[in-house]
């Protein structure tokens, strides 16, 4: 399963993502990648790994342990993919993991993306690896997310390019996205094509 949560800054993406993580944590190992400690601070049971230089951690060891790592990935942009490749390989090796990549436009952009994350999206199902991408700008996130997405959740977005991208999922209902009230979202089950509006 691939989940994609999008919407303007402050619209409620991470709030929803954190709630999903809280509900999954009792049952599955969760790995979060973000550029700040918000998940770790607000969810008990996540252990911090602050990556301020490459190869600081042995990801096979961390990911195969019983810990739920919150990885604050702070390396330079040209070092991000190498680190993500190692994390992804370790995730596929262990299997049965729920991976969250927040700020996905930074960590999994359209250009110069991690081949490891790409492999994880394309083959994750075989290894019981589910992924959730969170981004304020969907059009900057690598297209492999769109190609494999199971559920897309879109909060308010006023950018024209974003609304046009969302038309792929919501058809003409995408026009409602710019008028969505705070913390409300539209959801599309890509397999059935069903759509709806919700909030936490
Ligand atoms: N459903 C909600 N109910 C109450 N507060 C919410 C809800 N969704 C988001 N918030 C609050 O709104 C603010 C922005 O939400 P956040 O999820 O961090 O936005 P972003 O889309 O930028 O990730 C946070 O302070 C958060 O606690
Ligand atoms: Mg956020």
Task: Looking at this protein, list some descriptive labels.
single chain; about 200 residues; alpha/beta; Rossmann fold; nine-stranded mixed sheet; about 35% helix; binds adenosine-5'-diphosphate; binds magnesium ion
CATH topology: Rossmann fold
CATH 2nd-level architecture? 3-Layer(aba) Sandwich
**Overall average residue pLDDT:** 97
Our measurement of the CA-to-CA distance between the termini, rounded to an integer number of angstroms, reads 21 Å
> In order across it, which strands form the biggest sheet?
3-4-2-5-6-1-7-8-9
CATH class group: Alpha Beta
Largest sheet: 9 strands, mixed
Strand content: 15-25%
| Helix/strand order, N-terminal first | EHEHEHEHEHHEHEHEE
| Bulk shape | globular
Number of helices: 8
Give me the count of strands: 9
Taking all Cα atoms into account, the compactness measure Rg is 16 Å
From the helix content, strand content and strand pairing, which structural class follows? Answer: alpha/beta
Helix content: 25-40%
**Which regions are unreliable across 5 or more consecutive residues at pLDDT < 50?**
none
In short:
With 200 residues, the protein is α/β, with parallel strands linked by helices. The protein is built from eight helices and nine strands.
